[in-house]
Structure formats: structure tokens, C-alpha cells
Specification:
6 helices, 66% helix
Length: 167
């Protein structure tokens, strides 16, 4: 499906993600493309799109030849063009991450509205309800919690590591 929003094409693709998320990603991609054209010029924007489509075809067909073609194409580029590519693709991944975070909030709000008194699956709230339904006393649960060894693991998605200049 294709929509037009203030002159920008927004296509919703069947990528296995929700329609609202797909629309938002496509809108932000269109806006970023507009900015890329103005800041870096049509030639760089055409390069961004060429490499994006080449990578998409390589992934869809699982083609090593297409991946090699993309690598060869990138190897011929100037440092300036590679810098623009990195900036534009990094900005796109930041926008995607923000869209995904917003989608999680949207889904959680929808679930809470549809089933206001139902705990979220696999949540602490659900676990407490299961323990209560199983007949566990408050004291039993407290003793079990005291025996737990919870240690946080801090990780970052590769696109979450951002420099201030990118943000």
C-alpha cells in the first residue's frame, strides 16, 4: 500500500512488522531521504538508494555475488562519500530504534486498554499471580526471593552506540 503525506511517499511493506511501525519507518526514511538530498546532494542520495536496494536484493536472494558487488562498489568510493553514507545509514538506524521503542509503548498501551486487569505475559506481575494461584504463601515467596542471585547484564544493541554528532 502507498500513501502520500505532505508530498512524501510512504509505502507499507509486508516485512513481518506491524503496519503502524512499517508506516512510521517508511515515513522517517522518506524524511531522512529528503534531508540527505538537501545536505549531501542528489548523487549521494542516489548512492544511498543504490546500495540499499543492492543489499536488500542480496539478503532476499542470499547472494554472495550481490554482497561482493556491494563491497566492490563501496571500495571505489571517496572518503567523503563513505562518510556521508555512514552518517545517513547511522541516522536511519537511530530512527528505526526510536520507532521500535515507540511501537513497544503503543502495543503495551493497547494491551493494557484491551485487558486492563490482566498482567502482561512473562511479567513479574504474572509470576506473582501464578505463585498466588499455586497456593504459595507470602512468606514462601519471600524466602524464595531471598535465595535468588540476580546479576544485571548490561548490553547495547550495536546501533545504540551513538556519538553526539550523530544525535
Amino acid at each position: 500500500m502507498e500513501d502520500i503525506w505532505q508530498g512524501l511517499r510512504i509505502e507499507t511493506e509486508g516485512t513481518g512488522i506491524s503496519r503502524p511501525l512499517s508506516r512510521q519507518i517508511n515515513l522517517l526514511g522518506s524524511l531522512l531521504g529528503h534531508v540527505a538530498r538537501r545536505q549531501a546532494g542528489e548523487e549521494v542520495f542516489a548512492l544511498v538508494e543504490e546500495l540499499r536496494m543492492l543489499a536488500k536484493r542480496a539478503i532476499q536472494s542470499d547472494s554472495e555475488a550481490l554482497r561482493d558487488e556491494a563491497a566492490r562498489r563501496i571500495a571505489t568510493l571517496s572518503t567523503e562519500k563513505i562518510t556521508w553514507l555512514v552518517r545517513i545509514y547511522t541516522a536511519f538506524f537511530v530512527l528505526i530504534n526510536l520507532s521500535e521503542q515507540q511501537e513497544i509503548v503503543r502495543i503495551n498501551r493497547k494491551r493494557a486498554k484491551e485487558a486492563p486487569n490482566t498482567p502482561r505475559a512473562e511479567s513479574i506481575d504474572e509470576a506473582i499471580g501464578m505463585l498466588k494461584d499455586a497456593g504459595c504463601s507470602f512468606e514462601q515467596v519471600c524466602r524464595a526471593i531471598e535465595r535468588l542471585d540476580i546479576q544485571p547484564t548490561l548490553t547495547a544493541h550495536p546501533t545504540d552506540a551513538r556519538r553526539r554528532t550523530i544525535l
